[in-house]
Amino acid sequence: MTTRITGIAELVTNDPAHAHHADPGGRLGVLHDAALIVDGGRVVFAGPVADAPSASSDDLTIDVAGRSVIPGFVDSHNHLVFAGDRTEEFAARMSGQSYSAGGIRTTMTATRAATDDELEENLVHLIDQARRQGTTTLEIKTGYGLTVEDELRALQIIARHSDESTLLAAHIVPPEYADDPDGYVDLIVDEVIPRATTAKWIDVFCDRGAFTPEQTERILAAGKTAGLTPRVHANQLQHGEGLQLAARTGCASADHATHATDEDLAALAAAGTVATLLPGAEFSTRAVYPDARRFLAAGVDLALATDCNPGSSFTNSMPFCLAVAVRDMHFTPAQALHAATAGGARALHRTDVGHLAPGARADFAILDAPSYVQLMYRPGVPLVQRVFLAGEDAH
Ligand code: NIG
Ligand code: FE
Questions:
Q1: Is the pLDDT of residue 307 over 80?
Q2: What does pLDDT average to over the chain?
Q3: What is the domain count for the chain?
Q4: Complex prediction ipTM
Q5: Mean pLDDT confidence for 190-214
Q6: Which of 29, 67, 147, 347 has the fewest Cβ atoms nearer than 10 Å?
Q7: pLDDT digit string, tens, across residues 134-163
Q8: Residue 269 belongs to domain with CATH number
Q9: Is the whole-model pTM more than 0.95?
Q10: Residue in 203, 312, 316 to alter for ligand 1 test, most ligand atoms within 8 A of Cβ
Q11: How many Cβ atoms sit within 10 Å of the Cβ of residue 357?
Protein backbone atom coordinates (compact mmCIF):
# COMPACT_ATOMS: atom_id res chain seq x y z
CA MET A 1 0.00 0.00 0.00
CA THR A 2 1.13 3.54 -0.71
CA THR A 3 1.15 6.02 2.17
CA ARG A 4 1.36 9.73 1.43
CA ILE A 5 2.45 12.10 4.17
CA THR A 6 1.34 15.60 3.18
CA GLY A 7 1.22 19.02 4.79
CA ILE A 8 4.83 18.72 5.94
CA ALA A 9 6.06 22.21 6.88
CA GLU A 10 9.61 20.93 7.17
CA LEU A 11 10.95 17.60 5.95
CA VAL A 12 14.47 16.62 7.01
CA THR A 13 15.91 14.33 4.37
CA ASN A 14 19.67 14.34 5.03
CA ASP A 15 20.01 14.62 1.29
CA PRO A 16 22.85 17.08 0.58
CA ALA A 17 20.90 18.20 -2.48
CA HIS A 18 18.44 19.77 -0.04
CA ALA A 19 20.98 22.11 1.60
CA HIS A 20 19.78 24.24 4.43
CA HIS A 21 20.65 27.81 5.39
CA ALA A 22 21.02 27.05 9.11
CA ASP A 23 23.47 24.23 8.41
CA PRO A 24 26.54 25.78 6.82
CA GLY A 25 28.04 22.40 5.90
CA GLY A 26 24.78 21.68 4.10
CA ARG A 27 24.65 18.10 5.28
CA LEU A 28 21.26 18.00 6.96
CA GLY A 29 19.03 18.61 3.98
CA VAL A 30 15.68 20.26 4.73
CA LEU A 31 12.67 20.86 2.51
CA HIS A 32 9.67 23.06 3.18
CA ASP A 33 6.10 22.37 2.03
CA ALA A 34 7.04 18.81 1.25
CA ALA A 35 5.51 15.40 0.78
CA LEU A 36 6.84 11.98 1.68
CA ILE A 37 5.53 8.95 -0.18
CA VAL A 38 6.15 5.43 1.03
CA ASP A 39 5.54 2.10 -0.63
CA GLY A 40 6.59 -1.41 0.36
CA GLY A 41 8.34 -0.10 3.46
CA ARG A 42 10.60 2.21 1.45
CA VAL A 43 10.60 5.88 0.56
CA VAL A 44 9.54 6.38 -3.05
CA PHE A 45 9.33 10.19 -3.03
CA ALA A 46 10.69 12.89 -0.73
CA GLY A 47 10.38 16.34 -2.25
CA PRO A 48 8.39 19.53 -2.70
CA VAL A 49 4.68 18.90 -2.64
CA ALA A 50 4.39 20.54 -6.06
CA ASP A 51 6.57 17.79 -7.58
CA ALA A 52 4.83 14.84 -5.93
CA PRO A 53 3.35 12.22 -8.26
CA SER A 54 -0.43 12.30 -8.26
CA ALA A 55 -2.37 10.23 -5.78
CA SER A 56 -4.37 7.14 -6.57
CA SER A 57 -7.64 6.46 -4.77
CA ASP A 58 -6.17 3.52 -2.79
CA ASP A 59 -3.47 5.63 -1.18
CA LEU A 60 -3.57 6.29 2.54
CA THR A 61 -3.03 10.01 3.05
CA ILE A 62 -1.87 11.45 6.37
CA ASP A 63 -2.02 15.24 6.51
CA VAL A 64 0.41 16.34 9.23
CA ALA A 65 -0.90 19.90 9.08
CA GLY A 66 2.27 21.95 9.26
CA ARG A 67 4.41 19.64 11.36
CA SER A 68 8.00 18.56 10.92
CA VAL A 69 8.99 15.08 9.72
CA ILE A 70 12.47 13.72 10.40
CA PRO A 71 14.33 10.46 9.78
CA GLY A 72 14.03 8.11 12.77
CA PHE A 73 16.93 8.36 15.18
CA VAL A 74 19.74 5.84 14.75
CA ASP A 75 20.89 5.22 18.33
CA SER A 76 24.18 3.49 17.67
CA HIS A 77 25.31 2.82 21.26
CA ASN A 78 23.22 0.99 23.88
CA HIS A 79 23.67 -1.51 26.70
CA LEU A 80 20.15 -2.86 27.17
CA VAL A 81 20.58 -6.48 28.27
CA PHE A 82 20.75 -6.22 32.03
CA ALA A 83 18.86 -6.66 35.25
CA GLY A 84 18.97 -4.75 38.51
CA ASP A 85 19.03 -1.15 39.42
CA ARG A 86 21.66 1.44 40.34
CA THR A 87 19.47 4.29 41.51
CA GLU A 88 21.44 4.60 44.73
CA GLU A 89 24.73 4.79 42.87
CA PHE A 90 23.32 7.68 40.85
CA ALA A 91 22.04 9.43 43.98
CA ALA A 92 25.44 9.00 45.64
CA ARG A 93 27.12 10.45 42.58
CA MET A 94 24.83 13.45 42.60
CA SER A 95 25.85 13.86 46.25
CA GLY A 96 29.50 14.09 45.30
CA GLN A 97 30.85 10.59 44.62
CA SER A 98 32.65 10.00 41.35
CA TYR A 99 31.84 7.45 38.65
CA SER A 100 34.02 4.38 38.23
CA ALA A 101 33.85 1.41 35.90
CA GLY A 102 33.54 -0.78 39.03
CA GLY A 103 29.78 -0.21 39.16
CA ILE A 104 29.46 -2.51 36.15
CA ARG A 105 29.95 -5.41 38.61
CA THR A 106 26.73 -4.55 40.41
CA THR A 107 24.80 -4.96 37.18
CA MET A 108 26.79 -8.07 36.24
CA THR A 109 25.68 -9.83 39.43
CA ALA A 110 22.02 -8.98 38.87
CA THR A 111 22.20 -9.91 35.18
CA ARG A 112 23.74 -13.32 35.82
CA ALA A 113 20.99 -14.05 38.37
CA ALA A 114 18.16 -13.06 36.00
CA THR A 115 16.19 -15.46 33.83
CA ASP A 116 16.20 -15.11 30.04
CA ASP A 117 12.60 -13.92 30.22
CA GLU A 118 13.41 -11.22 32.73
CA LEU A 119 16.25 -9.92 30.59
CA GLU A 120 14.14 -9.97 27.47
CA GLU A 121 11.20 -8.23 29.14
CA ASN A 122 13.45 -5.43 30.33
CA LEU A 123 15.00 -5.15 26.88
CA VAL A 124 11.62 -4.97 25.15
CA HIS A 125 10.42 -2.34 27.61
CA LEU A 126 13.49 -0.17 26.96
CA ILE A 127 13.22 -0.57 23.18
CA ASP A 128 9.55 0.40 23.34
CA GLN A 129 10.39 3.55 25.33
CA ALA A 130 13.08 4.45 22.79
CA ARG A 131 10.68 3.95 19.88
CA ARG A 132 8.13 6.27 21.41
CA GLN A 133 10.86 8.90 21.48
CA GLY A 134 11.64 8.51 17.79
CA THR A 135 14.39 5.88 17.70
CA THR A 136 13.98 3.47 14.81
CA THR A 137 17.39 1.74 14.77
CA LEU A 138 19.13 0.58 17.95
CA GLU A 139 22.53 -0.98 18.36
CA ILE A 140 22.60 -3.20 21.43
CA LYS A 141 25.64 -4.53 23.30
CA THR A 142 26.25 -7.44 25.63
CA GLY A 143 28.63 -6.81 28.50
CA TYR A 144 26.85 -7.53 31.78
CA GLY A 145 27.18 -11.33 31.66
CA LEU A 146 30.96 -11.68 31.48
CA THR A 147 30.95 -15.49 31.33
CA VAL A 148 30.90 -17.52 28.11
CA GLU A 149 27.29 -18.60 28.67
CA ASP A 150 26.01 -15.24 29.88
CA GLU A 151 27.55 -13.30 27.01
CA LEU A 152 26.21 -15.78 24.45
CA ARG A 153 22.71 -15.72 25.94
CA ALA A 154 22.74 -11.92 25.77
CA LEU A 155 23.59 -12.17 22.07
CA GLN A 156 20.72 -14.59 21.52
CA ILE A 157 18.28 -12.24 23.21
CA ILE A 158 19.53 -9.24 21.22
CA ALA A 159 19.25 -11.15 17.94
CA ARG A 160 15.49 -11.41 18.47
CA HIS A 161 15.17 -7.60 18.56
CA SER A 162 17.97 -5.93 16.57
CA ASP A 163 20.23 -6.53 13.60
CA GLU A 164 22.86 -4.39 15.27
CA SER A 165 24.26 -6.63 17.94
CA THR A 166 27.61 -6.07 19.55
CA LEU A 167 29.75 -8.42 21.60
CA LEU A 168 31.14 -6.43 24.54
CA ALA A 169 32.43 -9.35 26.60
CA ALA A 170 35.38 -7.02 27.22
CA HIS A 171 33.35 -4.55 29.26
CA ILE A 172 35.27 -5.14 32.49
CA VAL A 173 37.35 -7.99 33.89
CA PRO A 174 34.93 -10.08 35.98
CA PRO A 175 35.84 -10.84 39.61
CA GLU A 176 36.75 -14.48 38.87
CA TYR A 177 39.64 -13.21 36.76
CA ALA A 178 40.70 -10.31 38.99
CA ASP A 179 44.15 -11.83 39.40
CA ASP A 180 44.44 -12.98 35.80
CA PRO A 181 43.00 -10.37 33.43
CA ASP A 182 44.85 -11.86 30.47
CA GLY A 183 43.20 -15.18 31.27
CA TYR A 184 39.85 -13.43 30.74
CA VAL A 185 41.10 -12.03 27.44
CA ASP A 186 42.07 -15.60 26.45
CA LEU A 187 38.56 -16.74 27.33
CA ILE A 188 37.01 -14.04 25.14
CA VAL A 189 39.34 -14.81 22.24
CA ASP A 190 39.18 -18.63 22.48
CA GLU A 191 35.66 -19.33 23.75
CA VAL A 192 33.34 -16.39 23.24
CA ILE A 193 34.27 -14.82 19.91
CA PRO A 194 34.23 -18.08 17.91
CA ARG A 195 30.68 -18.76 19.15
CA ALA A 196 29.37 -15.21 18.71
CA THR A 197 27.87 -16.06 15.36
CA THR A 198 24.96 -13.63 15.49
CA ALA A 199 27.05 -10.58 16.40
CA LYS A 200 27.86 -7.91 13.82
CA TRP A 201 30.27 -5.89 15.98
CA ILE A 202 33.11 -6.43 18.46
CA ASP A 203 33.60 -3.74 21.12
CA VAL A 204 36.05 -3.24 24.01
CA PHE A 205 35.99 -0.77 26.90
CA CYS A 206 39.54 0.55 26.58
CA ASP A 207 39.96 2.80 29.62
CA ARG A 208 41.05 3.10 33.23
CA GLY A 209 39.74 0.15 35.24
CA ALA A 210 38.79 -1.82 32.13
CA PHE A 211 41.10 -3.10 29.34
CA THR A 212 44.57 -2.01 28.24
CA PRO A 213 45.36 -1.00 24.65
CA GLU A 214 47.27 -4.29 24.18
CA GLN A 215 44.33 -6.36 25.40
CA THR A 216 41.97 -4.27 23.30
CA GLU A 217 43.96 -4.88 20.13
CA ARG A 218 44.06 -8.63 20.76
CA ILE A 219 40.31 -8.81 21.21
CA LEU A 220 39.53 -6.62 18.19
CA ALA A 221 41.90 -8.67 16.03
CA ALA A 222 40.25 -11.93 17.10
CA GLY A 223 36.87 -10.41 16.38
CA LYS A 224 37.93 -9.32 12.93
CA THR A 225 39.21 -12.82 12.19
CA ALA A 226 35.76 -14.12 13.11
CA GLY A 227 34.09 -11.62 10.74
CA LEU A 228 33.05 -8.99 13.26
CA THR A 229 33.69 -5.29 12.66
CA PRO A 230 35.41 -3.34 15.46
CA ARG A 231 34.26 -0.34 17.48
CA VAL A 232 35.54 0.80 20.87
CA HIS A 233 34.69 2.66 24.04
CA ALA A 234 37.66 5.00 24.23
CA ASN A 235 38.90 7.85 26.42
CA GLN A 236 35.78 8.19 28.53
CA LEU A 237 37.42 8.31 31.95
CA GLN A 238 40.85 9.59 31.06
CA HIS A 239 43.05 10.37 28.11
CA GLY A 240 44.66 7.22 26.71
CA GLU A 241 45.54 5.46 23.49
CA GLY A 242 41.99 4.43 22.70
CA LEU A 243 41.23 6.92 19.94
CA GLN A 244 44.52 6.35 18.17
CA LEU A 245 43.95 2.63 18.48
CA ALA A 246 40.46 2.97 17.01
CA ALA A 247 41.84 4.80 14.00
CA ARG A 248 44.72 2.36 13.55
CA THR A 249 42.57 -0.77 13.76
CA GLY A 250 39.88 0.44 11.38
CA CYS A 251 37.11 0.86 13.92
CA ALA A 252 33.79 2.00 12.47
CA SER A 253 33.39 4.21 15.51
CA ALA A 254 35.23 5.39 18.61
CA ASP A 255 32.70 6.10 21.33
CA HIS A 256 32.73 8.60 24.22
CA ALA A 257 35.95 10.42 23.16
CA THR A 258 35.51 12.62 26.21
CA HIS A 259 39.26 13.21 26.38
CA ALA A 260 40.74 13.85 22.92
CA THR A 261 43.85 15.68 21.75
CA ASP A 262 44.19 17.37 18.38
CA GLU A 263 46.40 14.45 17.29
CA ASP A 264 43.64 12.01 18.24
CA LEU A 265 41.12 13.96 16.16
CA ALA A 266 43.47 14.09 13.18
CA ALA A 267 43.92 10.32 13.37
CA LEU A 268 40.16 9.70 13.48
CA ALA A 269 39.59 12.03 10.54
CA ALA A 270 42.32 10.40 8.45
CA ALA A 271 40.99 6.91 9.17
CA GLY A 272 37.35 7.84 8.56
CA THR A 273 36.46 6.55 12.03
CA VAL A 274 33.27 8.15 13.33
CA ALA A 275 33.41 9.65 16.82
CA THR A 276 30.21 8.82 18.67
CA LEU A 277 29.56 11.38 21.37
CA LEU A 278 27.37 10.34 24.29
CA PRO A 279 26.01 13.39 26.11
CA GLY A 280 23.97 11.26 28.53
CA ALA A 281 27.21 9.84 29.96
CA GLU A 282 28.78 13.20 30.74
CA PHE A 283 25.43 14.42 32.05
CA SER A 284 24.95 11.46 34.41
CA THR A 285 28.53 11.25 35.60
CA ARG A 286 29.04 15.02 35.93
CA ALA A 287 31.95 14.92 33.52
CA VAL A 288 33.17 17.68 31.24
CA TYR A 289 31.53 17.54 27.81
CA PRO A 290 33.66 17.13 24.70
CA ASP A 291 33.31 20.08 22.31
CA ALA A 292 31.79 19.05 18.99
CA ARG A 293 33.29 22.10 17.28
CA ARG A 294 36.79 20.67 17.71
CA PHE A 295 35.81 17.37 16.11
CA LEU A 296 34.03 19.03 13.21
CA ALA A 297 36.87 21.48 12.60
CA ALA A 298 39.26 18.51 12.44
CA GLY A 299 37.05 16.81 9.85
CA VAL A 300 35.80 14.01 12.13
CA ASP A 301 32.36 12.62 11.36
CA LEU A 302 30.13 12.64 14.43
CA ALA A 303 27.35 10.43 15.69
CA LEU A 304 25.20 11.09 18.74
CA ALA A 305 23.82 8.21 20.78
CA THR A 306 22.27 7.65 24.21
CA ASP A 307 24.67 5.03 25.68
CA CYS A 308 21.60 3.78 27.53
CA ASN A 309 22.85 1.66 30.45
CA PRO A 310 21.99 1.44 34.15
CA GLY A 311 25.26 3.00 35.31
CA SER A 312 26.62 5.95 33.42
CA SER A 313 23.64 7.06 31.29
CA PHE A 314 20.21 5.64 32.04
CA THR A 315 18.39 7.52 29.31
CA ASN A 316 17.08 6.14 26.05
CA SER A 317 15.83 9.52 24.90
CA MET A 318 17.49 10.80 21.77
CA PRO A 319 15.61 14.14 22.07
CA PHE A 320 17.14 14.61 25.52
CA CYS A 321 20.61 13.83 24.13
CA LEU A 322 20.07 16.26 21.24
CA ALA A 323 19.16 19.05 23.64
CA VAL A 324 22.22 18.45 25.79
CA ALA A 325 24.46 18.11 22.74
CA VAL A 326 23.38 21.52 21.49
CA ARG A 327 23.48 23.24 24.86
CA ASP A 328 26.66 21.72 26.25
CA MET A 329 28.65 20.18 23.40
CA HIS A 330 28.17 23.13 21.05
CA PHE A 331 26.60 21.27 18.17
CA THR A 332 24.34 23.49 16.09
CA PRO A 333 20.80 22.08 16.01
CA ALA A 334 21.36 20.97 12.39
CA GLN A 335 24.65 19.27 13.20
CA ALA A 336 23.10 17.51 16.17
CA LEU A 337 20.16 16.13 14.21
CA HIS A 338 22.49 15.00 11.44
CA ALA A 339 24.71 13.20 13.97
CA ALA A 340 21.68 11.52 15.59
CA THR A 341 20.40 10.17 12.27
CA ALA A 342 22.88 10.01 9.36
CA GLY A 343 25.83 10.00 11.78
CA GLY A 344 24.50 6.98 13.65
CA ALA A 345 23.86 5.21 10.36
CA ARG A 346 27.43 5.84 9.28
CA ALA A 347 28.72 4.56 12.65
CA LEU A 348 26.79 1.35 11.98
CA HIS A 349 27.81 1.08 8.31
CA ARG A 350 24.16 1.40 7.28
CA THR A 351 23.12 3.12 4.08
CA ASP A 352 19.40 2.27 4.30
CA VAL A 353 18.59 4.30 7.43
CA GLY A 354 19.29 7.78 8.79
CA HIS A 355 18.03 9.58 5.72
CA LEU A 356 14.81 9.90 3.70
CA ALA A 357 15.71 9.66 0.05
CA PRO A 358 13.98 7.36 -2.44
CA GLY A 359 15.09 3.80 -1.70
CA ALA A 360 15.70 4.38 2.02
CA ARG A 361 13.80 2.45 4.66
CA ALA A 362 10.71 4.42 5.58
CA ASP A 363 11.76 4.93 9.22
CA PHE A 364 10.62 8.38 10.28
CA ALA A 365 9.01 10.44 13.01
CA ILE A 366 6.31 13.10 12.90
CA LEU A 367 7.00 15.84 15.41
CA ASP A 368 4.35 17.86 17.18
CA ALA A 369 6.30 20.95 16.14
CA PRO A 370 6.83 22.93 12.96
CA SER A 371 10.61 22.48 13.12
CA TYR A 372 13.09 19.90 14.36
CA VAL A 373 14.85 22.76 16.17
CA GLN A 374 12.11 22.52 18.80
CA LEU A 375 13.66 19.20 19.88
CA MET A 376 16.42 21.32 21.41
CA TYR A 377 14.45 24.52 22.01
CA ARG A 378 11.77 22.72 24.06
CA PRO A 379 13.79 20.16 26.03
CA GLY A 380 11.87 17.51 27.93
CA VAL A 381 8.64 18.13 26.01
CA PRO A 382 7.23 15.02 24.30
CA LEU A 383 7.36 16.31 20.72
CA VAL A 384 7.64 12.94 18.96
CA GLN A 385 4.05 12.36 17.94
CA ARG A 386 4.12 9.29 15.67
CA VAL A 387 6.86 6.94 14.62
CA PHE A 388 6.92 4.80 11.48
CA LEU A 389 9.09 1.70 11.04
CA ALA A 390 9.44 0.54 7.44
CA GLY A 391 6.32 2.55 6.62
CA GLU A 392 4.22 1.05 9.44
CA ASP A 393 2.92 3.03 12.39
CA ALA A 394 5.04 1.75 15.29
CA HIS A 395 2.63 2.68 18.09
O1 NIG B 1 29.44 3.20 28.04
N2 NIG B 1 31.90 2.86 29.65
C3 NIG B 1 31.58 1.70 29.79
N4 NIG B 1 30.36 1.23 29.80
C5 NIG B 1 29.22 1.99 30.02
C6 NIG B 1 28.91 2.14 31.46
C7 NIG B 1 28.49 0.87 32.06
C8 NIG B 1 28.04 0.91 33.47
O9 NIG B 1 28.41 1.80 34.27
O10 NIG B 1 27.26 -0.02 33.81
C11 NIG B 1 29.33 3.29 29.25
O12 NIG B 1 29.29 4.38 29.82
FE1 FE C 1 28.76 2.43 26.46
A1: yes
A2: 96
A3: 2
A4: 0.95
A5: 98
A6: 147
A7: 999 999 999 999 999 999 999 999 999 999
A8: 3.20.20.140
A9: yes
A10: 312
A11: 17
Asked whether the beta carbons of 223 and 168 are under 8 A apart, the reply is: no
Instruction: Assign 88 to helix, strand or coil.
Output: helix
Q: Say how far apart CA 315 and CA 313 lie, in whole Å.
A: 6
Q: Which ligand sits closest to the CA of 106?
A: 1
The DSSP secondary structure of 189-230, one letter per residue, reads IIIIGGG-TT-SEEEEEESTTSB-HHHHHHHHHHHHHTTPEE
pLDDT of 24 higher than 90: no
E strand or H helix at 297: helix 292-297
Protein residue whose Cα sits closest to atom 3 of ligand 1: 205
Considering the domain architecture, whether residues 310 and 259 belong to the same structural domain is answered as: yes
Q: Is 328 annotated as a binding residue?
A: no
Residues 9 and 109 grouped into a single domain: no
Q: Closest Cα to atom 8, ligand 1: which residue? A: 311
Q: What separation in Å is there between the alpha carbon of 105 and the centre of ligand 1?
A: 11
Same domain? For 266 and 308 the reply is yes
Residue 59 CB burial class (10 angstroms; 0-12, 13-18, ≥19): middle
Q: Containing domain of residue 101, as a range?
A: 74-348
Residue nearest to atom 6 of ligand 1 (CA): 312
Co-location of 134 and 215 in the same domain:
yes
| φ/ψ (deg, to 5) at 386 | -145, 145
